[in-house]
């Protein structure tokens, strides 16, 4: 699910990314102006899942996210909080 979210970022598909955000997430869906602002900072993005800690309807996913831009790359470890909604795992906090 985190891979799908990052893939949507990489594909410049805001609708697909927003479909993967939990309806009760604090930040909610990504508005178009924020999406366009984010997209200007990378050419591509990739993710590698490092660890998953799942407990009933909540999970924490630790991942290494790599952004590529202007023939350079930068990797950061990110933590994604997931929660279920209608039996589907969705991004609750990233």
Automatic annotation (TrEMBL):
Q: Under which name does UniProt file this protein?
A: DUF4878 domain-containing protein
Source organism of this protein record: Natronolimnohabitans innermongolicus JCM 12255
Question: Which InterPro entries does the entry mention?
Answer: NTF2-like_dom_sf
